Structure formats: C-alpha cells, structure tokens
Amino acid sequence: MTIPQTLHQRHRAVLPDWLALYYDRPIELTHGEGRHVWDADGNRYLDFFGGILTTMTAHALPEVTKAVADQAGRIIHSSTLYLNRPMVELAERVAALSGIPDARVFFTTSGTEANDTALLLATTLRGSNQILAMRNSYHGRSFSTVSITGNRGWSPTSLSPLQTLYVHGGVRGRGPFAQLTDERFIEACVADLEDVLGQARGGVAALIAEPIQGVGGFTSPPDGLYAAFRRVLDRHGILWISDEVQTGWGRTGEHFWGWQAHGQNGPPDVLTFAKGIGNGMSIGGVVARAEVMNCLDANSISTFGGSPVTMAAGVANLNYLLEHDLQGNARRVGGLLLQRLQAIAAGTPCVREVRGRGLMAGIELTRPGTDQAWPEAAAAVLEAARADGLLLGKGGGHNTSVLRIAPPLSLTVAEAEEGAEIIERALRTV
Predict the structure, then answer these.
(1) Which residues contact 212 (CB under 8 A, 6 or more apart)?
(2) Could you tell me the pLDDT band of residue 61, with boundaries at 50, 70 and 90?
(3) pLDDT (0 to 100) of residue 2
C-alpha cells in the first residue's frame, strides 16, 4: 500500500532545493481576510509580512476581488498588441503619481522583470554596461539583477552581463562610515562615489538603489544621500534608477515613494515598482522620462505584463489605498509600532537595532555583547512567533539576522499592539 505523501514531501520531490521555505514545519496558507491568514490545519495568524510586502491593503479585499472577478468575466488576456483600457487607466494614474515629468509606464509581471527592463533602458541609452549599485542591495533573481545585487545570500553567481561597481551608503549603522554624523556620512559616501567613478572606464550607465533596502534588512541612509549623489551623477550624465518595489505606495508613511526622502535635486530618471500595487496579483513596472523609455529602437511587447485582470486589480487597489489614506495610516500606526518595538528592544540584549519607517520595520539580532550577527536567533524568533500566531519575515546582509515586519497598510492600532506583544514574547525565548 502506498503511504500518502505530505504536501511538503511532494514539494521537495518536484521543486528546486534552492526554493526557500519558512519554518521547520512549513505551513500551507489556505485563505485570508483583512490582516489575518489561516493555514491548512485551521490555525489563524496575524500577518506581519504580507507575502513579502505584496498584500499591501488587506487579504481578500472586496474591492479588489470584485474587480478581478468582473474583468475575468469579460476577458482575461489579450497582450500588449491590443489596446487595453485597464492598462491605460493604471498607467495614467501611476505616471501622475510618480513625480517624473513626461512619464511613460511599462508594465511587467514582477519586480525582477521591472529592474531588468530598467537596466536595459539605461544601458541602451548610455551605450554602457557599467552599473553603480549599493552594497547590501537586492534587485531580483534574473541573470542581470543578481549581477547588481550586493547581498551574497541572494546572488548565486559571479558571472554577469554587466560590470557592477558597488558604492557605500545603503547601510547607515555598519561599515567604515557608521560612526560619522549624518552630514559627514553623506560627505564620505559622496567621496566614495567620486572615487569609484574615477576608476570606471568610460561612461557609467546608471546608479540603481533601493531607498530602503528590503532583503538587506530594511536598512537605509540618512535622508538626502541620493540627492547628494544626484549632483555627481548629473555631472557625468549617469541615470538614477530608484527601486521602489518595496518602498512604494506610501508604505514608509512619510512619503508615497521612497525617493522623495532624497528628492531635493528632483525625481529619479527611472522608477521601478511591483509587489503591493497588485495586492497579490502579478504586477511590476517601470516609469521613466519619455527620452529614456523611448530609447529602444527594436520592437517589444509584453505577453503577460499589463494583463487586463491584473490591471483591473491594480486600479481598484490603488483607489482603495488613496481613498482610505493608507499612507497616513502607515505613518500613524507604524509610528506607534516602531515606538513599541524600540521599547521592547531596550530590555532585550540580543536586539542590536530597531529601524524602519511607517509599516516597514526591521529588528536586527546579534549575540549579546557583540556586533556579531545571530541568524539562529532570528530563526528561533520566527518559529516562536508563528507558534504564537504571528507571521514575520527575515532578511539582512549579515547572515539573515533581521526580523522584517511589513503588514498590510490597513493594520489597526489593536493589531499592532497584539503583534508587538507576540514579538516581545518570542524574543524572550532566545
């Protein structure tokens, strides 16, 4: 008699070994509502990770599910070879919100593909395969995007179609400039950028940077760093690509886009986005000045980017986000949550730092009394929180020792307090 296999066993039998799963006993999520999800065993969890910052507004948001169902009942797919009303409508909204003048929008199916497209545009326009990227960064899993990822845990090959030059500045609290004031930190990073450019041969195409590094553990520079970089980039004709896959749509609370904390010298030349705009549907995209977007002289389409169904979801989700001021909610509730987490950290020896903005918080764990990353502790806290009914994420450039907190932007004060209490109990188990 054949013994039935568990879903985990079936997963391991047919999917790649490198496809990561959370938890010693991985869970199957079957449904969700609001800020909560349920697993196949009927356990209920408060979701503080939102499918890697993708369920941006709420699980099973009626406005989005209705838009998807209505559009699917008319036509599911057509490709970009035909006029597509939902795609035009969402592009108009995104272009207007982007802050980029004379903006053009191209839709993809993921953040990886969006960044890949941005690299294609920049290298074509500039006639160079040299790219500036930030240390500790993450930009996707394609061949080109892993080659500009400055986080060894997510860059499986040193082979690359690009020549990547890494710059200081994405991590404020570690590295050779950590002890400087914010002003001196920016000055030192600008000097480093100038030094790197002095070593580059020919014209560099672009700098790509996350305003807040996602996979890197929600690290960020002082406000104004990329504005200072921009002055240098403009002198050399180098494009600035802002990777807003995780920071976009008001998650930081203070701004709608992460670049706006660095916008003193204007918006980026190129902005990439994905994740939250679809609230779980597969949407990515690129916004760029017309001069940049239109530089390609070959035909191109997207088979699945701009799908009528995903675009309808994006329009409905964006409407809900703006009408309910979820950016403001991220600022208010996120501010309270960060204060609560910082108070917890003050009495927890293994917490090196609590950082973040809005509903985008990171808790970095190190061995008590040292600056040494403690990934085992992060894994243990993740397990303890799950057992107590809370889902968290992990990240960090130093051996994955940062707990990543990014719930749907509709999180309530009561849910924030509940999650903080569970995190506090989980940290006590270390």
Answers:
(1) 218, 219, 220, 246, 247, 252, 258, 356, 357, 360
(2) very high
(3) 64
* CA–CA distance, 174 with 355 (Å, rounded to integer): 13
Spatial CA neighbour of 210 closest among 197, 201, 220: 220
Taking residue 195's Cβ as centre, other Cβ atoms within 10 Å add up to 11
CB 200 within 8 A of CB 247: no
Angle ∠(268,274,280) on CA atoms, nearest 5: 160
Question: What does the DSSP 8-state code read for residue 223?
Answer: T
CA-based radius of gyration for the chain = 21
Lowest mean per-residue pLDDT among 27-41, 91-105, 152-166, 214-228:
152-166
Listed in sequence order, the DSSP H helices in 127-170 are: 143-146
Please tell me whether the overall predicted TM-score, pTM, comes out greater than 0.90 for this model. yes
Residue 217 contacts residue 362 (beta carbons within 8 Å): yes
b/e per residue 269-285 (b: at least 16 CB within 10 A): bbbbbbbbbbbbbbbbb
Q: How far is CA 127 from CA 31, 44, 404, 422, in A?
A: 48, 53, 38, 52
Helix pair 225-236, 182-199: axis angle to 10 deg: 30
Tokens coding 54 = 């993708």
The three-class DSSP label of residue 238 is coil
CA 200 to chain centre: 29
Strand ranges for 340-392 from DSSP E: 351-357, 360-365, 390-391
Distances (CA, A) of 225 to 189, 210, 228, 232: 8, 12, 5, 11
Give the chain's length.
430
Encoded tokens for 40:
């196949």
- The encoded tokens of residue 255 equal 């701004």
CA-to-CA distance for 126 and 226, rounded, in angstroms?
20
Structure tokens at 165: 């030059």
Distances (CA, A) of 317 to 59, 187, 274, 400: 11, 40, 13, 32
Residue with tokens 């204007």, as numbered in its chain: 266
pLDDT digits (tens, 9 = 90+) for 367-418: 999 999 999 999 999 999 999 999 999 999 878 899 999 999 999 999 999 9
Q: Which helix (H) or strand (E) holds 63?
A: helix 62-74
Burial class (CB in 10 A: 0-12, 13-18, 19+), 52: middle
